[in-house]
Amino acid sequence: MSEYQLYCFAQSGNAYRAALMLNLIGADWEPIWIDFFGAGVQRKPDYREGVNEMGEVPVLVHGKKKLTQSGVILTYLTDLTGKFKPQGEDERLEALRWIIFDNQKVNGFLGPYRFLKNFAKPACDPAVMAFLKERVDGNLAIVNKRLASHQYLLGDSPTIADISMTAYLYYPAEEYGFDIVKDHPAIGPWLDRMKALLGWKHPYELMPGYPLGTQGYRQS
Ligand SMILES: N[C@@H](CCC(=O)N[C@@H](CS)C(=O)NCC(=O)O)C(=O)O
Fold first, then answer.
1. How many CB atoms neighbour CB 70 within 10 A?
2. Cα radius of gyration rounded to whole Å, the chain
3. Structure pTM?
4. Are the C-beta atoms of 176 and 114 separated by less than 8 Å?
């Protein structure tokens, strides 16, 4: 058995943060595929009781330790290995600031937008999509401004804040109906810098479950 197990699926940018970190640090890890769209495993009582009471993916298992929330997983792995670690207290807090902003406002809106556009049945109300798109544009513009004057979110080196922020940004433009790197010109070169790191892989290569079967996702 590998040293780490990660509950994940290919379409999850939230899980991609953890999968990418594991690959970039050269960890010995294996994915445990979650049938999110079909059986909705994450909503079943045994998943909530035995794996994650929050009913979410990703979940990282490391020996007896079981961790959820990608920000916690990234923090655990950077503390353990020293890789992609913010340097000093100010940087640690700065990384946390970007990780929270990302989880809530950047990929926190982009992920549901992509989900509703591609996977939800019945289709989502256009007014909801318009609301999310406006939030996505505004928050990506903030990230773009930061990256126009910084190589990486905190400065000259990539940290867990960058790994967190990549979550949904490598998925194809067709899945959004707009092109993030065209609309936000500083984001593309930064994604390329991240892509050049040893161990980088696209989410569809790194995690199982792509392509998806024909079934859509229903709320119940
Ligand atoms: N803030 C969490 C978000 C996790 C999350 O929302 N994961 C989605 C999959 S991409 C999920 O499991 N949603 C549960 C559901 O919709 O039933 C993290 O970064 O780990």
1. 30
2. 17
3. 0.97
4. yes
DSSP H helical ranges for 59-197? 70-81, 88-101, 107-118, 126-149, 160-165, 180-183, 187-195
Report d(CA 145, CA 150) in Å as an integer. Answer: 9
Q: Is 103 in the pocket of ligand 1 (CB under 6 A)?
A: yes
Establish whether residue 69 lines the binding site of ligand 1, counting it when its CB lies within 6 angstroms of any ligand atom: yes
Q: What is the distance in A from the centroid of ligand 1 to the CA of 117?
A: 17
Nearest residue by C-alpha to atom 10 in ligand 1: 12
Which domains does the chain carry? 4-83+202-206 (3.40.30.10), 88-195 (1.20.1050.10)
User: CA 112 to CA 106: how far, in whole Å?
Assistant: 11
pLDDT tens, position by position, 30-69: 999 999 999 999 999 999 999 999 999 999 999 999 999 9
Q: Is the minimum distance from the CB of 42 to ligand 1 under 6 angstroms?
A: yes
Cβ atoms within 10 Å, residue 192: 10
Query: Tokens for 121?
Result: 């049945």
Q: How far apart are CA 194 and CA 14, in angstroms?
A: 17
The residue written with tokens 């959004």 in the block is 176
